[in-house]
Specification:
single chain; alpha/beta; 7-stranded mixed β-sheet; 19% strand; globular
Length: 527
Amino acid sequence: MSALPLISTPPVEPIAVRHLPARQACRYPEPLVLLHGWGSDSRSWEALLPRLHENCDLLLVDLPGFGDSSVFESVDAFIEQLLVQLPQRFMLLGWSLGGMLATRLAALQPQRVSALITLAANLSFVQRDNWTAAMAADTFSEFCGSFSSAPEMTLKRFSGLMSQGDKNARPLLKSLREATQSSWQHSSNQWQLPLQWLGELDNIKSFSTLAMAGLHLLGREDALVPCGAAEGMQSLNLRQQVSVLAGSGHAPHCSDAEQVWQRIEDFLQSVHYAVDKQKVADSFGKAAHNYDSVAAVQRQIGHRMMEQVQSCDGLALDLGCGTGYFTPLLGEKFSCVAGLDLAQGMLSYARETRSGDYLWLCGDAENLPLADHSVSAVFSSLAIQWCADLPALFSELKRVIRPGGKLYLATLGPDTLKELRQAWSNVDNYTHVNTFASKEKLREAISASGLTLDRFHGEDIVLQYDEVRQLTYELKTLGAHNMNHGQSAGLTGRQRVIKFKQAYEQFRNERQKLPATYQAYYLELSC
C-alpha cells in the first residue's frame, strides 16, 4: 500500500475532512463519507479510492488523534463536531472503529444518513453479557496496556492481527505495517483515547433500530472481529444486509479491493434505484378513477394468480388492493376480507365502487398495521414490486400470517419493459424505467424470513402497440410512472423524446407492431 501525499498544513476545522469529487458524472445525490479504523488515517482507503470516486463524491475523514484531526473527549462530542462539517445528507462507509462510529452516528441522526456501510465492524468490540461474539475483555485490556507501554511494537503486532488468516496475508501484512508506521509518524500520537472508545462503544441497541439501508461486511478469517457476529447482527435487524467474505481478515478493502468495491457498488445502486414510496402512493392515488380502463395485463396476471387461491377459514388480505378489483373475488372464497393499499386515493375509490362488507386499510406492506398471526391468506397482484426492502416485506408477511397460512403473490421481474429501458439507454444515462427484483433476490429474502416457497413460476406477456405513445399513455394512465431515485430531475426535452421514439422503432416486429414485455412472476408460499 503506497502512501498518498502527506497533508502538511494544519486543518482549518477541528476534524480534517478531505473532499474528492467524482472523476466522472456523479451518480449519487449524496456524498460518501469515509471513516477509517483505529491505527490508521484516511489514507487507508487508497486501494478503494480509484473505484469509489469514479462516480461518487467522497469525503475522507481523519478520526480524532489521527492524521490532522484534533482529539475529542467523547464519542458524542466528535460526532457533534463532524455533523457540523458534513452536508445535510450523506452516505456513510466505516471500517472497524470507523464502522462503529458510523453506526452510532446513523442511529443518532437517521434523517441525515441515506445509507450505511461497515467493514469488519462489530456491534461491540469486546464481549458483553448480551454479546459474546467479540474479543474477550481481558485480551482487549492486555492490548491496551501493551500499547501504552510499547506502542510501536504493539502496532506491529496489531498489523499482524489485521492480516491474519487473509488469503493475501503476506503482502497485506507488509502494506499494513508500512501504513500504520506512516500514520503513527504523521499524527499527534494521541491514540489512547480512540482505543478506549473502541472498548466502550456498544451499538447493540442502536443497530436494532436502524431503518435506513445498510450493508455490513465481515471477514470469515478476521482475528479481531469474529465472523460469528454476523448471525447476531442479522437477527437483530432484518432490514440490514450482513455478509461474510470468504478468505478475508480484518482489512478486506486493502486485501481484496475489487470484491469489496463490487459489493459496495451493488448496494449503492440498489439504494439509488430504490422506489420512492411517496411518489408511488401519490401517482396511483391520482390514477384511481381511470386505472381499470387500461389495466388489461394487470387483470390477466391477477386472474391467473387468483385461480390458485384456495378457500379457508379466517381473514384474507388483499395486499396492494388498488381499486379493489380482486377484493370481491376474495370475498367469494373467504368470509372476512381486508384490502390494504399505500395510496389513499385508491382506497377511497375502492370504498365507493366495491359493494360488500370489506375492511379497507391504508398502510405499507413493509410495516403492516396488523397483529401477529392474524391473517389466514394473503393475495397480492402486482404490488410487492414497489417494495424497496424485500427482507422487511417478507419478515412482515411472516409475522402476520398464521401457522399453516398461504400466500399468493404475483409480481414483476427485471425484464419488464426491457424494450422501453433499452430505447431510453440510447438517449441518456438516467433511469426512465422502474427497476424490479430478480428471482434470486426474491428467493433469498423469502428464505431469510422463514417462509416456505412452494411454487415459483414465471412467464413473459408481450403486448403489441401501433405507436410508442400508446404505451406511454397507458403507463401514465395506470399511474406507473418512473418512481426510482435515479431518474432525471428535469423535464424531458422534445429532441430527447424524438430520439427515444426513434430508438424504440428498432423493436418493431414482422407484424409492424411495437412490443412491450411484462415479465410476470407467480409465487405461492406457506408458513
